[in-house]
Amino acid sequence: MATTQRSESLSARETAGLIASDKVEGTAVYRSNGDRIGTIDRVMIDKLSGKVAYAVMGFGGFLGIGDDHYPVPWSLLTYNPQLGGYEVNISDAQLRGAPRVSSGESWDAFDRDRETALYSYYGATPYW
Asked: What is this structure's pTM?
């Protein structure tokens, strides 16, 4: 009995304050006005510190943005229970000029220099 309860608690994908990464992937991202602008494709976590570095967003054709991946500092996203997704204040102009990883580009190319440029672009405090 104790083993069963422990297994069930370890397999929980969401608690009151935590959510599993596979549940975050695919979650909608909205503007503060409630307009849906995209989804979270993946969450990137620093291996050593365990801190979430950024969310990689997909825009599905929003503003003509589609196949590329757009990293957004995690600190810019706020979970909004009323929307059932994450909220972010990023303008159309910011999205058009945002740092991205193009389709076919290796993620290995996304190093600390690119992370620094990403955080600087959005005016966010780096996670490191």
From this structure: 0.81
Phi, psi of 21, deg, nearest 5: -60, -35
**Beta-bridge mates of residue 71:** 56
Whether residue 10 is predicted with pLDDT greater than 60 in this model: the reply is: no
> Which run of H or E residues covers position 15?
none
Q: Starting at the edge strand that comes first in sequence, how are the strands of the sheet with 28-30 ordered?
A: 70-73, 52-58, 36-45, 28-30, 85-87, 78-80
Tell me the pLDDT tens digit for each residue of 101-113. Answer: 887 787 776 788 9
Residues found in the chain: 128
Which SS3 state, helix, strand or coil, does residue 79 take? Answer: strand
User: What are the strands, taking DSSP E only, across 1-128?
Assistant: 28-30, 36-45, 52-58, 70-73, 78-80, 85-87
